[in-house]
Specification:
By secondary structure, this protein is α/β, with parallel strands linked by helices. It has 16 helices and 13 strands. Helix 8 runs parallel beside helix 11 and helix 13 crosses helix 14.
Length: 444
């Protein structure tokens, strides 16, 4: 019999294995309000919750990690119960949400906080208009959990000891400014509603935003972006008002012959449980399309086997694997980045394991605002120096965009060269020269 591991979803009262939730009933655990109330964002509370069954070394590492992380830490009881606390160092869920100082490594000198230059492409607060027919509408700056690798660590969540967050003024007053801009641009057809996380919008806000956008004549497609399905699926099972609001938006879209979808964010097959499936089933029954956008993360999903399992399991629960992103060049999470070569090899091994429409596209969101490029579409790539050069002729013609593999993937000699400003500049110039990009091009 062929491997059917992707159908083996964790079920039953698995959270009771976690000491802190041993007495929690199913009714409590499935209640999204209980999940919110008992989510952990405080170091003291986290230590108190896990100190009896992890090593002192681990407690020391996460204590220091809290002080170094660019993102606020916030995890749900659901996520905590999915972590293998017998080996928290190597657990793929722990790595994404709880920083351990002794696993952090040196940032590449080319990293920034806003590597995608979203603010440079923002005509009004909270709206990024980079592609001619699509805009990113940021509606809220908070999330049900905070991913360590967030590409918007410059603005999302509370201030940390290492990052003072930019205030994007995301509220209903500024939504109106965004609506007016969208209405003034007839070329816009596709709006991604994000943040933060749209899970944190009220039911009333979901309807207000969805209805308003769908009633703009030239808008044909809207997508609600949320990691919520991966980190707190119980909201779908217990917040009827919110799910009904989303359903009303979907139904209006269907009547107007416009697409409405959810884009969610599972990164590892371990995150998909029977609770996940029940939540997805509920949305599927209502005709709601769900697509997944993963990020390739070192030690989380950076092997062909892990990615194949994730893709197959997503397909099994009726979530379309849509994108796998190369990790953005954001600061403070270099331990999670992988090389472009790693991504290319994984893509080769994923393609062919399932139907083409359930095979994700592996993309790199070009630093500097070039938009999404297929990972293998570079003009030049040198695995030795880790420099890849991309162009985006339909987005920003005449410009080129460089991505830099993490230092840990390079030889010691090249790592030392990147620490030297003159050698650093020469490696970039060499890559541009060998790419064959016209001289008139310039770095965005």
């Amino acid at each position: 019999m062929k491997n059917l591991k992707h159908r083996e979803l964790q079920e039953g009262e698995f959270w009771r294995k976690f000491p802190a939730f041993a007495e929690v009933s199913q009714d409590e655990f499935i209640d999204y309000k209980w999940q919110i109330k008992n989510s952990i964002s405080d170091l003291k509370k986290l230590v108190e919750t896990i100190e009896y069954f992890v090593s002192d070394d681990f407690l020391l590492a996460i204590t220091k990690g809290f002080h170094l992380a660019p993102m606020t830490v916030r995890v749900t009881p659901y996520l905590l119960s999915l972590i293998d606390w017998n080996d928290p160092w190597n657990d793929p869920i722990r790595k994404q949400f709880i920083p351990a100082s002794n696993r952090l490594i040196e940032d590449h000198p080319m990293l920034t906080l806003d590597s995608l230059h979203e603010q440079k492409d923002s005509p009004v607060s909270g709206l990024t208009h980079r592609y001619s027919d699509k805009a990113l509408f940021l509606t809220v700056n908070s999330c049900p959990v905070y991913c360590r690798f967030c590409t918007r660590s410059y603005a999302v969540g509370a201030d940390t000891e290492t990052v003072k967050k930019m205030d994007l003024y995301l509220n209903s007053k500024h939504w109106e400014t965004a609506f007016q801009y969208i209405e003034s641009c007839p070329e816009l057809e596709d709006i991604v509603i994000s943040g933060g996380d749209t899970y944190n919008l009220s039911a009333e806000a979901i309807k207000k935003i969805g209805f308003r956008l769908l009633q703009i004549p030239h808008i044909q497609r809207i997508r609600f972006a949320t990691k919520g399905l991966a980190v707190m699926p119980m909201k779908i099972l217990s917040d009827e008002k919110w799910v009904d609001a989303l359903t009303e938006v979907v139904c209006l879209g269907r009547k107007l012959h416009k697409q409405v979808a959810i884009h969610t964010h599972f990164n590892n097959a371990q995150e998909i449980t029977m609770i996940s499936k029940l939540a997805i089933d509920k949305l599927f029954e209502r005709g709601i399309v769900i697509r997944n956008q993963s990020v390739l993360l070192r030690g989380v999903n950076d092997t062909s086997e892990e990615m194949q399992l994730l893709v197959k399991r997503l397909s099994y629960i009726n979530v379309q694997p849509y994108y796998v992103y190369q990790h953005d060049m954001v600061q403070g999470v270099e331990d999670l980045r992988t090389s472009v070569q790693t991504t290319i090899e994984i893509e080769k091994n994923v393609r062919g394991v399932t139907a083409g429409f359930n095979t994700p596209t592996f993309v790199l969101d070009a630093p500097g605002g070039g938009g999404k490029r297929c990972i293998h579409s570079f003009e030049y790539y040198n695995p030795e120096t880790g420099v890849s050069v991309y162009t985006a002729p339909s987005v920003k013609p005449g410009k080129y965009f460089m991505y830099f593999d993490p230092l840990h993937s390079l030889s010691e000699e090249i790592r030392q060269a990147w620490r030297d400003e003159n050698k650093r500049q020469q490696m970039c110039l060499d890559a541009i020269y060998h790419s064959g990009v016209a001289v008139r091009s310039h770095f965005a």
